[in-house]
Each structure stands twice: as C-alpha cells, then as structure tokens.
UniProtKB/TrEMBL annotation:
Residues making up the signal peptide according to the UniProt record: none
Domain of life: Bacteria
Family annotation (InterPro entries): IS1016-like_transposase, Tnp_ISXO2-like, Transposase_Zn_ribbon
Domain named ISXO2-like transposase: residues: 128-280
Name assigned to this protein: Unclassified family transposase
Matches recorded under Pfam families: DDE_Tnp_IS1595, Zn_ribbon_IS1595
Matching PANTHER family: DDE_TNP_IS1595 DOMAIN-CONTAINING PROTEIN, SI:DKEY-17M8.2
Record organism: Granulicella tundricola (strain ATCC BAA-1859 / DSM 23138 / MP5ACTX9)
Amino acid sequence: MDYPKTLIEAVRYFSDEQVCIDSVSEMRWPDGKPTCCWCGKQNNTWLATQKRWKCKACRKQFSVKRGTIFEDSPLGLDKWLVAMWMLANCRNGVSSYEIARSLGITQKSAWHMTHRIREAMAPEDGSKLGGADTAVEVDESYIGGKLKNMHNKQRRAFAGSGGDNKNKSIVMGAVDRENKKVRAEVIPAAQRETMQALVQKHVKFGSTVYTDSHVGYTGLKLKYEHDFVNHMTEYVRGQVHTNGIENFWALLKRGLAGTYVSVEPEHLGRYVNEQVFRFNHRWVGKVRHTDATRFKAVLKEIVNRQLTYADLTGRSGQTAKF
C-alpha cells in the first residue's frame, strides 16, 4: 500500500473510512486474515454495515480499533491517522491546540490523542547501542523551568531546594556514532547507580563510551572503554566529546520550548519518546526516511499500546515551563 507523502495527500487519502480501515487492517494482519481479539481465531465474517468483523468461533464482534491506541475512541480513523501523520513528521512536534484546530475537535480530545500516539512511538525492541570498535556518547540533560520564570506559588514550592537544577527533570541519553541511533529516558536522580544502570541497559559491554566528567560515570572503565571531557576546561579532545548527544538535547528542548511550552514532569517521558522516534527515523542505513515511511513506522506499533484518559490524568505534579 502506498501511503501519502505530504500532509495534504494524507488529509485526502484518509477522508475515506474504508481506506482508513484497510490501512490499519493491512498493518495489523499482513496475511489478510483478521484475528479475533477475543479468542485468537481467524475465522470471521465482515459486517459491512457495521464496519467490523464477527468471529464464527466465539460469536463476538471486533473492529480494527480493538486492542490498539484507537480503542474506545469516539473519533474516526480519518482524524486519528491524519494526527498520527502530523506527529510523526513535524520536526519540532505539533501541539494539541494545533491538532484540535486542524481536525475540528476539542483540545482535551487532541491532548489525549497525541499522548496515545506517543505510546506507539515508545521504543520496544530492546536493542543495544555500540559494540566492538563503536563509540557511544552518553550525557544527561536537565529539563524544566528556571525559578525566576515561575509564578510566585511555584517559586515558593521550590524555595530552599538548592540550585536551579533542583526543580528540573533529568533526562539521560546515549547516541551511537555508527548508526546514529539514540536512546533516552527520564531518570529520578543523577546518581551513579541510576546512571550506570541505564548505560548498561542501552550500551553493549566493551563499547567505547564518551561522557562528560560527571561523577556518576566513574567506574564505567570496568565494563567499557571509557573516556571523558571536563566541560570546565574543554568540550572536544580529538574523538572524545559528546557533541552528538548534545545535538539531540537541542532538538528536544527546541520542541519542548517552542511547541509544547508547558510539560508536566509525569508526561515528559512520552515527549522524549516522540523526539527519540523522529531522531531514529531520519535514516535507514544510507537511505533517508520519507514522511510516508515514518508514518508507517508508527502505525506498525499501535497494537497493545492503549492509554486511557484515567491513566493519563491519574497523576499529579508540578508543571515545568520552558
């Protein structure tokens, strides 16, 4: 199936409900045999008037939305797939307000929709970066607002907590210099145990790892070829630098500050996943990803990634303004 290459093509292409159903169905069941979401059987009948299947084994009905990020959504797939196309391909992201205006839905619905799409963008393959004779850059970044930019109520809440970084969220990331892939996660604290556990989670033992001089990286030499730069005196020393991962931080912060403006810490991980997805889907080897292939990559991951509104809003936290 040829997917649309531009936004205007996507709007036109997905305006047909049956095209939307066929697109999702083909991605879920490449063999052309829809599988019952209730019993796992593939013996079913298409109910054309209801746009769903009826399983001949368990007699239950299921739609193409069942078991996906679209499940229980009253919005049509025409809106869902256009929103997915936009989020996958807008370089700095797209806000829920823009999605709402573009699709003619409420901002509340658009906000929930975009977070559900980000669930499909979350990495799940578990593959590690690096390897023999491969360099990986590792760094941490502090995300959030400055005390001087906060309202008095927020400033008082953080009063006496220490330096300006104390009220920020911490994101740790790694980039493979060979394949240009990145991994990034929100971490609770910039402590040695936490930071080194994340390095071991995402980087193969024996890789060459370059970091800054943060004390949390002390001891990496036990399992890696480790070298670092002290940013108090230098940023580059030959091949030893973290410029690659710093580039990712710049892209992440540009999207957060310019597009999303205000992000609650408990949701930050999904925004990080969104930027990681776009960063990792720039190239396939030496071939550049197209907007169509990026969209397809998200669509492939929609199954078993449900996120209810209750789960999305059931947490509380300070708002980090950028």
